[in-house]
Amino acid sequence: MKRLMAIGLLSVLLVVFCGAPEEGPGTETKPPEEKGVAEIAYQTLTEAELQKFMKVYPVAKEIIEKSGKEFKSDAENWEGWTGQFSTADKEIAGLDVKLRAAGMPWDEFWPVFGKVMTASVANMFDAEMGKMDKNLKEMEAQLNDPKVPEAQKEMMKQAMSQMQDVKKMYGKVPQANKDLVKKHWDEISKLLEIEN
User: In terms of Cα–Cα distance, which of 196, 45, 35, 47 is closest to 117?
Assistant: First the structure.
């Protein structure tokens, strides 16, 4: 079950944070305009950011759920989806005001959410990395086997590509972020409703 949850969270992360715009203090959040700016989820997470996030997350969740706002996504337009999420404060009345009152404005909240989720998924994958490497080697061997049908080889190539993407993402997550999330895992897993 833990493995399925990690894969599910990874899917969400890949959709949410491929293309997240970089922000600085006082900058307006705009939909992303170019690929490769997803690095916000891999920036360093601080204890202060995490404490504020844990305090404000229930408020954000309640407001978003009450608004009925759905973030529509498709695999071909991840940047557009992230743009929707990053600018939700413009579409959900009172979101930023209520989050500011709770202690963390939206433009600070959503990047920290990305860091927390990315580190959470990376921690869940810690135990799976060895198995993934073994699976990649086995698939490579099967690709060279003339007895394996071409359709199966194509499926394996796609699976291998996705596994390589996961490994790349995993490798970019700062160890300090993973350690900080581990330190507060009991509270984070409750907030995000992640089964242990």
Answer: 45
Name all contacts of 187-191 with Cβ < 8 Å and 24+ positions apart: 187/54, 188/54, 188/116, 188/120, 189/120, 191/54, 191/57, 191/58
Q: How many domains does the chain divide into? A: 1
Tokens encoding 43? 């920036």
Name the pTM for this structure: 0.69
More confident residue, 129 or 96: 96
Q: What is the extent of the structural domain holding 108?
A: 2-22+44-125+175-191
Residue 142 in domain: no
Listed in sequence order, the DSSP H helices in the chain are 2-17, 47-67, 78-86, 88-91, 95-102, 106-125, 129-143, 150-172, 175-183, 185-191
Residue pLDDT, tens place only, 93-120 = 888 899 999 999 988 998 898 889 889 9
Cα(2)–Cα(5) distance, integer angstroms: 5
Residue 152 lies in a domain: no
Does residue 141 belong to any structural domain of this protein?
Answer: no
Residue 162 belongs to a domain: no
Both structure tokens of 135: 């699976």
Residue owning tokens 């921690």: 123
> Quick count: other Cβ atoms within 10 Å of Cβ 79?
18
